[in-house]
Write the structure tokens for this entry.
Amino acid sequence: MTPPLRLGVNIDHVATIRNARGGLHPDPLRAARMAAAAGADGITAHLREDRRHIVDDDIAHLIGGIALPLNLEMAATDEMVAIALRHRPHAACIVPERREEVTTEGGLDAAGQHNRLKPLVTRLGEAGIRVSLFVEPDPRHIEAALSLGAPVVELHTGRYAHAEGEVREMELRRLSDAAALAAKNGIEVHAGHGLTTDNVAAVAAIPQLVELNIGHYLVGEAIFVGLEEAIRRMRASMDAAR
Ligand code: PXP
């Protein structure tokens, strides 16, 4: 049997709701603690340049307030590297970031940005932070991650999640081929973006995957069934697929 998949719960959109009124409620730290109680294996938070959801204080609170590993999603900028080095999260996932985007719309151009990424990956790695690169499931980017010395890649599942029929099948094959290539080269493989209980099974069945990071759907479902129940249902869908 394939080993169980880790579930990283992304709590960004708890902060989105909080920030809509500018106060303290709902608190992402409370959500992170609930996620832990419901069976999450890690917490993920994206500190964006424009601080549209998670803010700097959230990172400090999460680092000090949860027992689970924190995966800090961040752009490849000097500001974010300094923040990561100050807080020393368990992991840092390097994502592309554009101010005008609604969410992280594509993977990092790991192949085209070797010289910019190399020092950053090295500095974070030397500080004991496990670096992952959020990339499209494309062999070019897996090879780039290898040459950058990144121990982890996170495969962008957005295209798969938004496709239908044959296109979805093709996107699934791209994910599964990229996962196999990365694992064969000793890179740990994670995946995420746009995953729901309806589409997670096929991704969770890819044997080389060891972690999924899921946020928007879980926070949305929390409105209807509560956060703990939403996470439990996702966990059950993932486990059933292994
Ligand atoms: N992984 C990465 C690198 C992301 O940027 C995001 C979105 O912030 C996710 C996972 C989670 O995506 P979603 O919120 O669609 O579940």
Observations:
- The two ends are 7 Å apart (CA to CA).
- DSSP finds eleven helices and eight strands in the chain.
- The mean pLDDT is 96.
- The first strand starts at residue 6 and ends at 10.
